[in-house]
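Two proteins, back to back. First:
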Amino acid sequence: MARRKDNYIFGLDIGTRKTCAVIAEVNESGGLDIIGIGMTESKGLRRGIVVNLEATVEAIRKVIEEAELMAGVAIESAYVGIAGNHIKGFNSRGVIAVGGKSREITREDVQRVIEAAKAVSIPPDREILHVLPQEFIVDDQDGIGDPIGMTGTRLEVNVHIVTTSVTSTQNLIACVNRSGMVVADMVLESIASSETILTPDEKELGVALIDIGGGTTDLAIFEKGSICYTSVVPIGGDSFTNDISVGLRTPIPEAEKIKKRYGCALSSMVEDDETIEVPSMGGRKPRILSRQILCEIIQPRAEETFNLVHDEIKKAGYEKSLNSGIVLTGGGALLEGMPEIAEQIFDLPVRRGSPTGVGGLVDVINNPIYSTAVGLLLYGHRNTASRSRVRGGENTFSRLKTWIREFI
């Protein structure tokens, strides 16, 4: 029997360091099985922003071909992750009066109150990416997740709004379209990662998700089951690599290899007599150096990264609310010693997060570098009613209706 195309979901993570594609099939029980994976090096992005269109398109085409070949299916649309310094998030509130004789809250009332919450002034060069309802309030009764059918005279909603640069978003969409793929939806990468990394209990008690990518480090804070703060720190794994390249006087490709093989963010975890071989510039002979020297280069950058994130958490006022601690994910989280140094800086429990909630090729994707791609699949699976939308031509109201369907 022929397999239906709408049984498949495609997640595309276009990062600064790597581009990753993952295909999942909806199984008989309604879950997702990973059936195709593609990954290649990214060369066309810098800190999440497209700087070389052709290089980005080539990378996207390559991972699409790899994933489709492994899965044995052709995919037409993708859920695409977006990140970068241009991402801005803020909270807003909407208030409306409930009409009708019965004063019963309807779906239309919910739409109106969310419209009121998003009626904020933003610069013309920015657009709303997400409107994320946190809680509804009916006649001063807060903490309501679904107000439809309830009776009241006043309806309020607290939302978290994420905005992006119009040009950065459109350039990313153009790259995907030129690769032959339609964008089903654009999703903030930290929100996508949270789909597969965080547990419902962590989101309820309060948790900070720190996604350490190649160009940036994304922060998302959850409390009472909803997202309440997002931010981007302009430091990522590439900053560590550049420091190693300069500090050890070795080419950047070699510095990346050294970081992955020998890197440690906490020098106290390394023995004094451990040594590493470091390739030199210009064809000179390799040198033998102490691994402690490498750690002394990496540790200050790790401390700076986590201190900047800590400052963001304090600025947002959630320093005392993270009862579930910190969860690290992304390629940068793989660096030895990162959870340990994070625990010292945040004074909270810290764990590495790898993708969960899917079947199929779980042994392959059980790695923090796949967090965003797998999260995009789970996000898309929850929004299957909107999979046929073309992101490039959708309007703000259609995106709003999608979020209403998701949270109601």
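And the second protein:
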Amino acid sequence: MAARTFIEIEELVAGMVLEQAVEDKAGHSLIERGTVLDDFHIDYLLESGVTGVYIRGREKAPEQTAEELMESLQNGAREEIEKNRVPDRSSVVLSEAVKKRIYEGIEYIYHNTDSEDFESAAHSVTEELLGALASNNAVALDLDQIKICDEYTFKHSVDVAAMAMTIGKNYGLTHRELKEIGLAGLLHDVGKTRVPEEILNKPERLTPEEFEVMKQHSLFSYQILKEKATLSEGVLMGVLEHHEKQNGHGYPLKMSGDQIHKYAKIISVADVFDALVTARPYKDAFPKREAIEMIMSMTQEMDINAMKSFLDILILYPVDSIVHLSNGEYARVVQNVSGYVLRPRVVGLTSGRLYDLSEDIHCASLIIDN
């Protein structure tokens, strides 16, 4: 038997599939099992006094590929998709050649903090990222598109720099400020080169004493960078303060609110999100959806404007991707709506119905669960 979930009648939405027939008191079938509910069915059930029904839900993903699913569409669904499809905003894209140069640059930076070429290498990598941001007027970010390697420190540094620059662009930073926040994002963890290897690479969670040592890395980063001639005060503050929190419970200085530099506020959001979605020896990666929900819950810790800018730039469900809805139906994403990263507009592959998850009150109880 297919997976089934009991849904109260007020929570039904068109496109849900009945897993158990609805019968009257005499045993006569009102609506057959397997029926794809539409608004008429739902109104009929309400008028009949039915309090709830079993619907199909949370089934395993289909064996078909996205292309095969699209080929099997009915004309109504296909037409609805074509009518409502809006391409995603331009996102940061790195060519393989650029990824190679960035990887070589970031590897050099973290292995040669005392080199005379340290600053020129950092500026060069930042310019590469700034060029990618400007090349197609990128205003959005899909992290899967910028991955340069699997090595955590290098990957994390580039992810945070690219994310901070994209957030910063949405935040309204100038070209000079975008370069500075890119440098700060790239170098925010360079102080970890002074953390003992046995702590930095420990495969289990750190003890409280070890974590106190790890917490010194932002101060170490500041100490390394303050000796560099071409790095501005803003870059230094972005690096030093990126673990400070709005409520004053961060480190190393326990600053709060407006005391924290705007670069650090932006980098903090990028740093936490990338850490959540990246697997480490002592923890699994969180799914991006869960990580976004966790970020959204941190209103006491993160700057609300930086958080909003982050939510505006992230693409979680690219247009044309296939998603599974909580009503049991598969759907194709047709438009991402700014400010609603978790709730795009989608078209059901079975019902052909447009679900506007961002603004339609009738879709309020409907979510993407896969």
